[in-house]
Structures are given as structure tokens and as C-alpha cells.
């Protein structure tokens, strides 16, 4: 890099930026519109948003860990208590979804064990196979043959008929 600089080509910037002087006494309409926008729209919206954020910061709501209280089973509802019927039906649907997820998790564990063990899967994954058999049998006993449109009442009747058959077989 050369030592001699061409000061005319590369001038040093001024130390202070000059302030432009106004040539008119009429106020700038852009400044007025910006101030009006700020006080009319931006300030209230910002205030409401900050207030909501402060309120939500105090009351944390985790929607993905929603817990429902257990409601009475359909067999415990009084005759004609339609609200109890509705709650029992909703509880049954939640229980069915939970049971489906349990079966799916056990099935995924079984598949992972088979993938991991390879040819030794029958001896090393026996515990997972037994657990999968138990879980699918329990699910099939409770929800099997109900179909997509099954509900709490048909499930209860299925369990009642199964218990009656077991009682007859025991005698």
C-alpha cells in the first residue's frame, strides 16, 4: 500500500454534520401526521398489548397439558340425566384415544426393538412382544367390534354381555 495518499481524491469527512435550516415557517405536514398516528393508533394499541402480555405473564396457560376431571361412568348416571350422559360419552372418547395411543406407543417400541435386534429379535424382544399382546388383547376386549361409530352405551353393553358369558362359562 503506497505511503502517499491523494487527499483530494479521498477527502476527510467533516467532524460535525451540518443542520439544514428551515426556509419556511409553515409546519411540516408529515410531522403532524406522524404525531397524530402515534397518539391515535399506536399508543393505545401498544398499551393494550403490553397490558395483555403482563396479564398472560402472570397466568400461564399450557394448553397441551390440559387435565380433565374424571366424570361418572355411564352406568352411574341417573335415568334421564342427559348432561351426565354427555359427560360420560366425552370421557369415554378421551379414554379410547388414550388407549389407542398406548397401543401405538407399545407397537412403536416393539418395532424399534425388532429393528435394533435384527435376527435375535425373538429372544431379545420377548418382553415387548408379551406386552404388545397384552395391550392389544385388552384394547380388543374393550373396544373391538364397536367400529368407528361406537359409543359409551354400546361399549357398556358389550362389557355387560362379556361378563354374562364369563359367568355362564364359570357355572
From TrEMBL:
Pfam families: NDUFB10
Membrane topology: Peripheral membrane protein
Keyword Transcription regulation belongs to the record: no
Keyword Mitochondrion part of the UniProt annotation: yes
Chief site of localization: mitochondrion
PANTHER family: NADH DEHYDROGENASE [UBIQUINONE] 1 BETA SUBCOMPLEX SUBUNIT 10, NADH-UBIQUINONE OXIDOREDUCTASE PDSW SUBUNIT
Protein name listed in UniProt: NADH dehydrogenase [ubiquinone] 1 beta subcomplex subunit 10
Organism of this sequence: Orthonyx spaldingii (Chowchilla)
Gene assigned in the entry: Ndufb10
Amino acid at each position: 500500500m503506497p505511503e502517499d495518499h491523494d487527499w483530494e481524491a479521498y477527502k476527510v469527512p467533516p467532524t460535525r454534520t451540518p443542520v439544514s435550516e428551515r426556509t419556511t415557517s409553515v409546519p411540516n405536514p408529515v410531522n403532524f401526521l406522524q404525531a397524530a398516528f402515534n397518539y391515535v393508533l399506536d399508543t393505545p394499541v401498544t398499551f393494550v398489548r403490553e397490558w395483555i402480555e403482563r396479564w398472560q405473564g402472570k397466568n400461564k396457560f399450557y394448553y397441551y397439558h390440559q387435565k380433565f376431571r374424571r366424570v361418572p361412568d355411564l352406568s352411574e348416571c341417573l335415568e334421564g340425566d342427559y348432561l351426565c350422559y354427555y359427560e360420560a360419552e366425552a370421557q369415554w372418547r378421551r379414554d379410547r384415544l388414550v388407549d389407542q395411543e398406548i397401543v401405538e406407543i407399545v407397537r412403536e417400541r416393539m418395532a424399534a426393538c425388532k429393528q435394533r435386534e435384527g435376527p435375535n429379535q425373538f429372544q431379545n424382544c420377548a418382553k415387548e412382544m408379551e406386552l404388545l399382546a397384552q395391550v392389544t388383547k385388552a384394547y380388543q376386549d374393550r373396544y373391538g367390534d364397536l367400529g368407528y361409530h361406537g359409543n359409551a352405551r354400546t361399549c357398556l353393553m358389550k362389557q355387560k354381555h362379556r361378563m354374562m358369558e364369563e359367568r355362564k362359562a364359570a357355572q
